[in-house]
Amino acid sequence: MDDAVEVKVEDDDVPMEENESDNENETNGQNPDNDEAKGVEDMAKVVLNSHADSIYCVASHFDESSKTICIISGGGDDKAFLHKIGNEIETLPLCYGHKDTVSCVALNNPFVSDDLSKTPKYAAVGAYDGAIIIYDPSTGAMIKELEGPSDVEFVSFHPKGGTVLLAGSADDGTVWMYHIPTSKCMQVFVGHENGATAGAFTSDGKWALSCSSDGTLRVWAPRTGVCKHVFRFGDHGAGLTCLATNDGNESQLVLVGAEDGMAHVCHIGGKKVIASLQHTGEQSVNLSNEGIEVPASVEAVGFAPAALNSNWCATGGVDGVLKIWDLNNNGCRHICRHESVAGQVAGITRLRWHPCRPIVFTTASDGIVRIWDARSGKLLKALTGHGDIINDLDVNTFGESAIIISGSDDKSIRVFDYDIAAPLSTS
């Protein structure tokens, strides 16, 4: 791509095979600390092994006053756990007996006010058995069960107080909205023709959003339940996999990733697709030496925070590529390639932006957390320890520290602590 910046990778940043040559057009995100001869270094500060099966979802909050990390996790063992990491490590099994995979978790801590009588702290746990359970994240006590969709795929809190919850069904595509204090179902948004894959409120709280494997992004009016607009992309209607909102541009932009390797930026008020970004195009990716091919879908998207640059966004795909985009010209600023030491593609599963620094965190199918400088495309660090694909990622920041939480198919949650100041100053 003509707009992509050429980034030279130093030899000491990325180990090269004898038959490889330096590539000045892309950054290869191999693990600079990983050497097959000496094994993989476990860089995690804390490892939690409560689950008996793959971990599919994690949500966390760092409390600055107590210096404590609260983590909610769910997995294929049909269980959810509350973990607290401070001076001591405490793990509590959450009491509800799910009958299927715990698929999604969320905490409303970022949205509560000082008056907890008006905006209580909640943890939401959703599962494929259709149960949505609300817990007190301070004690792990169950508060209530919300009746609603089957096969709960996502849960997301309203940003104004965190007392309203959005939940979507991977089964029938319905999206439900609840007022938690009264247990009232406020709306059931109906319109998707296939399962809902992701959803959220806009950062100003005015609209509810959902995307689906039916290839549509829908904008809902929370008060009336009316669908304000349906965004459709292309003639083939490739399924949508992920969604992100932004806190700049008057909270009007939405970014979605698709199974055909495209990502689309939509303007809510204007009801327009303002950019279609070609991440991989329609092709398949060979994920191993055995010739296993999968569609080159976009699996993770995210806007840079407004405090940094509201016109930057990122896309991550099964092809193992992270792309940093500039929406001023819809050009690709950087191409950051994830490769395992064996030279296989490490498909990206999640990405997160730092809330105020030009840093993107990614996780991949090779079990590595990578940290990238969005200005240069340089790999700052590869954090190892997991032995299998990482399914979910959350990031908290405190001062110059980034606290990274990841959940994996290896049945573990790992907590990494990374100081971002020094690498940024030298990159």
Characterization of the model:
The structure is a single chain. The chain has 427 residues and is mostly beta strands. Helices cover 1% and strands 47% of the residues. It contains one helix and 35 strands. It has one helix at 421-426, and strands spanning 27-28, 46-48, 55-63, 68-75, 80-85, 89-93, 102-107, 123-127, 132-135, 142-146, 152-157, 164-169, 175-179, 184-189, 196-201, 208-212, 216-220, 227-232, 240-245, 253-258, 262-267, 272-278, 284-286, 293-295, 298-303, 312-317, 321-326, 331-337, 348-353, 359-364, 369-373, 379-383, 390-398, 401-408, 413-419. Strands 1-28-27-26-25 form a five-stranded mixed β-sheet, with no helix packed on it. It is globular.
